[in-house]
Structure formats: structure tokens, C-alpha cells
Amino acid sequence: MNGQLNQSVMVLKGIGEETAEMLSEMKIKTIQDLLEYFPYRYEDYRLRDLVEVGHHEKVTVEGKVQSEPSLVYYGRKKSKLTIHLLAGRYLIKVVFFNQPYLKAKISMNETVTISGKWDAHRRTITANEFQAGSSTKQNDFEPVYSLKGGLTSKGIRKFISLAFQQFGSFIEETLPDSLLKKYRLQSRRDCLKAMHFPQNQEELKQARRRLVYEEFLLFQLKMQSLRKFEREHSQGIRQNYDLERLQEFINSLPFPLTNAQKRVVNEMLTDMKSPFRMNRLLQGDVGSGKTIVAAIGLYAAVTAGFQGALMVPTEILAEQHAQGLRQLFEPFTVRCELLTSSIKGKRRKEILQELVEGNVDILIGTHALIQDEVTFHRLGLVITDEQHRFGVEQRRILREKGENPDVLFMTATPIPRTLAITVFGEMDVSVIDEMPAGRKTIETYWAKPEMLERVLAFVEKQLVKGHQAYVICPLIEESDKLDVQNAIDVHTALSHYFQNRYRVGLMHGRLSAEEKDSVMKAFSRNEVQVLVSTTVVEVGVNVPNATIMVIYDAERFGLSQLHQLRGRVGRGSDQSFCVLLASPKSETGQERMRIMTETNDGFVLSEKDLELRGPGDFFGKKQSGIPEFKVADMVHDYRALETARNDAAILIQSPYFWSSSEYQYLRNQLEESGVLEGEKLD
Ligand code: ADP
Ligand code: MG
């Protein structure tokens, strides 16, 4: 760290205790903090042709006044001043609210400059800034800072300017020459300055470009050092699986593996056999066949003399997996046991006992599995399904379970590439990017709620053919209770609608495990034809005869979740359908519905979801381990992220990086963050 820049902001003229206090509320303590307190946006005062300006965008125009200003008062203090302005080729209206005094400053045929919000439909600017004559702004841009306490924009700008005057010359370069040259990046000093006092758009762009790259590079160096460290220092286990038995198992499957499955299986097996510890993320869209990959991994562990564990987020899913795996493994004398929180008493004790003794080969269960009462005899492989539901912390507990078992995290919510390499940067990633052959795409329609009758008639067409239907109920934010009530209401209505023709079942989170179980069983045996449900069916449930899903209030769901839900149909050989009932008000809402009808590709949807909702919302409200960047934006700067990632990978492997003085600063940063000792990043 640079001694000069590390001094308290109080060394600046005009900053006393009080101001320092206010600044520290904004986490600005040192000169460096101040210099790196970047504007969150810039006011753009460039004169623009109105043709380029979108509806409701902010704009600055210069023009000639074409009418005497007309002033109207309404209420005691409210007024509206209107003028007509010829701006370039456009005759537009300009209105000023509650600034009656401007009337005296504006006269016919004079030139004025105004800034405000452009209403493209009414061809009107609602102005908030006025200047007589041509624009005299020195800068096209004015930085806007987020402020706290009593600090003003002007104040912070003054302090930052002072900091540059006194300490600008102490700002050191952090990136080596070679990289600066390679990407034609400007010096750190110039870039910091340009962030605060940009002369023009281009300067700002160049400054951002450099700082984004630096931020990503450092981040990637940290992630990859951590990964390298973990690989080299964690005592992994070598699982010498029996290839012949494994091949036999694969041959016994009712279908050949897809190429993607083969590739992913190989990546997993290579990790298992190596002395390193596997820490791998497996991404694959709904229905891409992850379960089989998991089964192969688990069986490999068993043939190597180890135990395997499969963890899933819900009991229903655990039961389904247990059932499925038992079937697959039946000819191979593999003992699978199910452990969930509803398995209690003597039975539970028994399973736990058998587990310690090593008589259970594979344990399937919910999170309950990672509770500490569960001890394995010789745990070799842990697989978690629907991974992103588990927090960062659970990921860690899991990794610490047993004698350094290999760990595979599976997720059916395709994670956008940028998020995958940031949030899961310390892991290896495998992707199943191919669907089993012959899979039909699910035809998806977007219907207005008013069309419910027609939608139900459409559903009935499927029922007449002997198929079954899911009806997913409205989601009410954060309230399980209301969700349930909704489901009950829909169930009542549909029971009435289909009475004497079809049986309608009800599924929601408030049912007991036994109740859920019996509803699911009835549905999978086709004793119930229409299943009304909350989102509890989201994950995993497999009833191939169900060919249609109706989703109420679809606009309330995120794209990824809709895609997950939709994945419950289209599991058999028949054409399946999904109907989204929605009347979204916002444009993004409408866009979401449109995208759903246009693609079945989970990766495309996840990228869109990220774009529309931003990284914070992607994983839901809970803390998700998404790092915060000062300048960089994972979504918009993804190219820089990829570049930084590749560069980091090369650097980490190069002895030059670890020894040359060029990289001293970056190495220091790694050291300070603790990743070189294998400490966890937060
Ligand atoms: P997911 O990735 O969503 O967990 P599953 O593992 O449940 O997907 O697989 C979905 C369906 O596809 C299952 O019925 C499974 O038996 C089937 N399946 C998996 N792999 C293949 C394959 N290679 N060829 C044909 N069907 C497959
Ligand atoms: Mg699955």
C-alpha cells in the first residue's frame, strides 16, 4: 500500500473532524478511498439531435425561442411555464414547472440551452435546467456521486479535486507495462482522474476500460490462486474405480449416453481418480440427463470401495431419486438408503448405524444429510442436485464432510457464463449442452388471463387423449400462506370445472410429507389427471404422461424459474405444451413472456434473465456470493471478464508472474487477501 495515499482524508484542507465523520459514513477514510470513490453515473450535457433520443431519456438541446413564454398558475405555489423552441429541425415544446421567474429571462428569437426529460410522443421536454444563450458548460459530463449525510455533490467534487492536486503524483501504476501495452490501457493515474473529471465520452470510456480490466484481473487472480492452492494442498482421495464394472453398468442403461454426458462423465472420473480433490460444478438444462451422470459417479465410488451421497433440496425429490437409483442399481447389488427428516426413530438409527459400518453404499437425502449426526464409514463422493439453492456456507460444510470426498455440484438452472466464472470461479465447470435425441421442444404460449376458458378447453383436449396436466398457481411474494390459499382457490374452481370428467389434485408446501407423497403418487399413477400446485413441483418431479402445464400469473416468476417449471412437461415422447397466463404491465415483463415462447434453451434464458434482472436478483434475494465490483459490471463487461480470466489463468501458471517485479503489486494484493494460504474469500 502506498503510504502517502493511506493517510487520513483530514490531511486535506477543509476537511475537519466533522467532514471526516461524514465521509467515513460513505466508507471514505483515506486519500485513496476518496480517489477511488467513483461517480455512479454522469450527467450528459452533450447537445444531441432529438432523432437519436429515446422516449423519456434525458437530453440537452440548444434552440431558438419561437413563442412568448406562457405562464399558468395552478394552486398557490404551482406553476407551469411553456415555450416553443426550434431545436435543429424540430419544433418542440418545453415546459418548466414551478420556476415562474424564468419568464422574465426568456424572450422571442433568443437562443437558449435547456436540459430535461424528452417525451417523444408529445414532443415535449420537461426542463430542469435552463441557460440563456448557447451552452457554456465546460464539460459535456458531470459526475454524479451517491452521497450520505450532509455532503453535497459540490463538496465531494471539491475534496476529490483537492486530493488530486496534493496527492495525484503519488498514484502508482498497478498493472505491468506489458499488459498496459497489450491492451493499450492508460495509466492508473490518468484513469482515476478521468473517472472524476472526464473531458469527453471517449476519455471516460478508456478510463473505465482500464479499471474494469484491473478489477476483473485481480478478482480472477484471487479465485484462481485459491483454486490452485486448494488443488495442491487439499489431501484428495484417489478413487480407483473398476472400469469394467462401470462399463457394464453404463451398458445396462436403456439408452446410449449423449456425447455431452460422455464428456462430462469423463471429466468427473478423471477428477475422482486423481489425487486432487474434485470441486466441480455440473451444469445441465432440465432434462439433459444429469441424474445418470450422478449415478455413474456414485457407482464409480462404490466400485472403488467408497460410499457416495446424493443431496437434494426437497423430500419429494429425494424420494424420487432414491426410487430411481434403486431401480438402476438393482442388478448390481448396490445398497441405496434414503434419509430425510421424516425418517425418524428406530429406522433412522438403523440407517445411521449401517452407514458408519459401511453397509450402506449410497445415501440419498435432503439437507438433513449434512447435519453432524451423519457419519460415513468411507465417504468418497458427494453430489448435490439443484446446487444454487445451497448457500456458499453449505458448500463449505459439505466439502469438509468426511475425509475430503470429491464433490460434484449439479445445477439445472443454467448459470450464465459470467456468473458461473465469478460466483463459482474457484470451481471447475462441466456443462451438458446437449439434449438426449428425439426430445421435442415444449410449445409455449402466452395467453391473457381473460382467455382462461379457452385455455382450459385446450387443456381438456390433452386430457381427452389420456394425458395429464399441471396447473401452477400464482406466486405471492414471500408469503407461503397466501400461496397456499391461492392454490386452494384454484383447486376449488378447477374441481368444479372438470367435475365428473377428471380428478383434480392439490399440492402445496403446507401438506405433510405423507400427504404430499400420496398426492404425487396418485398423480404419477394417473389417478389424478390435473395437479394444481404451488411451485413445490418445481424441481425434479417426473411424470412423463403430463403433457401440458398452465402457469397462472406467469409474470411474477423469473425466467429461470419459469423454465424450471416448464421442464416438468415434455418428459415423454408426446408433444407437450406450456401456457403462460399473464398480463405483465412492464415492458420487461412482456419481454420475459415473449422470450419464454421463443426458446426452450435454458442457457439462452439464463443469460436473458441476468440481463433483465441483474446479478443480484438472479439467485434470489438471499446472499449469493456474488462479488461486488467498484467499476465493473458483470453483465455488460463480460468480454473483459473473459479476457481477464484467460490472462489470470496464464499468469498463475507462469513462474515469471511469481517472481518479476512488474507483478509485485498484484502479488501483494493476493497475499493481503489471504488466498495464497487457502483462506476463504468472502
Ligand atoms: P435432469 O438433467 O433434469 O436431472 P434427468 O436426469 O431427470 O434430467 O433425465 C431426464 C430424462 O431423460 C430421464 O427420463 C432420463 O431417463 C432420460 N435420459 C437421460 N439421459 C438420456 C439419454 N442419453 N438418452 C435418452 N434419454 C435419456
Ligand atoms: Mg435432475
Number of separate strands: 21
How many strands, what sense, and barrel or not for the largest sheet? 7 strands, parallel
> Mean pLDDT across all residues, rounded?
86
Tally of separate helices? 23
Hetero groups in this structure are: adenosine-5'-diphosphate, magnesium ion
Side-by-side strand order of the widest sheet: 11-12-10-13-14-9-15
Task: Please tell me what the overall shape is.
Answer: globular
Description:
- Helix content is 39%, strand content 18%.
- By secondary structure, it is an alpha/beta fold.
- The strands form four sheets. It has a seven-stranded parallel beta sheet with strand order 11-12-10-13-14-9-15, sandwiched between helices.
- Strand 6 and strand 7 form a beta hairpin.
- The site of adenosine-5'-diphosphate has 14 residues, from helix 9.
Describe the structure concisely for a colleague.
The protein is of the alpha/beta class and 682 residues long. Helices cover 39% and strands 18% of the residues.
Which terms would index this structure?
seven-stranded parallel beta sheet; 682 residues; alpha/beta; binds adenosine-5'-diphosphate; binds magnesium ion
Topology diagram in text:
Layout: H1 17-25, H2 31-35, E1 41-44, E2 58-65, E3 70-74, E4 78-87, E5 90-97, E6 111-119, E7 124-132, E8 141-144, H3 153-167, H4 177-182, H5 188-196, H6 201-233, H7 243-251, H8 259-273, E9 279-284, H9 290-303, E10 307-311, H10 315-329, E11 336-339, H11 345-357, E12 362-365, E13 379-384, H12 392-400, E14 406-411, H13 417-423, E15 428-432, E16 443-447, H14 452-464, E17 468-472, H15 480-497, E18 504-507, H16 513-524, E19 530-533, E20 546-551, H17 559-566, E21 577-581, H18 587-598, H19 602-613, H20 615-618, H21 638-653, H22 655-659, H23 664-673
Parallel strand pairs: 5-7, 9-14, 9-15, 10-12, 10-13, 11-12, 13-14, 16-21, 17-19, 17-20, 18-19, 20-21
Antiparallel strand pairs: 1-8, 2-4, 2-6, 3-4, 4-5, 6-7
Helix pairs in contact: 5-6, 6-21, 6-23, 7-9, 8-9, 18-19
This protein binds adenosine-5'-diphosphate and magnesium ion.
Residues 255, 257-258, 261, 284, 286-292, 412, 436 line the site of adenosine-5'-diphosphate.
